[in-house]
Amino acid sequence: MADPDLTTLRLLVLVGELGSLSRAAAALGVAQPSASKRLAAAERALGVVLVERGSRGSALTPAGTVLAERARRALTEVEGLVEAARALRAERDAELAVAASMTVAEHLAPGWVGGLRRARPDLRVGLRVTNSESVCALVRAGEVALGFVEAPGPLPGLSSRRVAVDRLVLVVPPGHPWTRRTTPLPPAELAATPLVVRERGSGTRDTLDRLLPRACPPALELGSSAAVLGAVVAGAGPAVLSALAVAADLAAGRLAAVPVDLDLRRALRAVWPSGRRLVGPAAELLALALRDAGA
């Protein structure tokens, strides 16, 4: 029999985190019958029972708990391998190396890079996608010429320019009690509620931590906005994410927005090493971003 694949490993980890096979399947975007078959196949291949299924949900067995922790570590190693491969490709193929946080990379940077490529069709651009903390580290190390981040607060060793204003949105599944509120949610109630959040180092998480410094521990911490959205849809808890990231789910009715009595705007910034003047393609890319921002 075939060894468990990466999707099955992720499914096993999520069952342990969410306590439900259906929620884990929804978070991964796979059908529940398919998820159940994957776990059953993994149990046959490994020779151990991984999940106890009951009327109140699913829970990992002791063996499943041990293997889920090993799966979590294996997935982290695989992600590191993929990121290293991406970095090597970028260094090999790119004349302009750029890094961007996930929100910027998914929703804004493609338009900027596309404009640059139209002006300079022979230019090869390598875009590395990671969280804001890692983007800043890559810029400081000289591994990329320009970065785009959503991180609040000072950025030591870096010059910056605002290229866009983003807004965070509190989202819940349709039918959540907060959707029946007639007034904005007080910050204290939001801070007292376990949320589904991004990992530390992401600009979205850093912004939320600054807005709610006394927030209770999160319900779940995940490494991408897509994973957070899937967990919210599955009922794991509310989340605060970029309006850019949640627009499609709000329009489709998969999520509902809840007004909050907080200023949830934040600046998205371009960053480069302090004391260095941008020239060539990096300067042209920044100019395109500033033009789109009306700056």
From TrEMBL:
SUPFAM superfamilies: Periplasmic binding protein-like II, Winged helix' DNA-binding domain
GO molecular function: DNA-binding transcription factor activity; transcription cis-regulatory region binding
Residue ranges occupied by any HTH lysR-type domain in the UniProt entry: 4-61
Alphabetical keyword list: DNA-binding, Transcription, Transcription regulation
Assigned protein family: Belongs to the LysR transcriptional regulatory family.
Name of this protein: Transcriptional regulator, LysR family
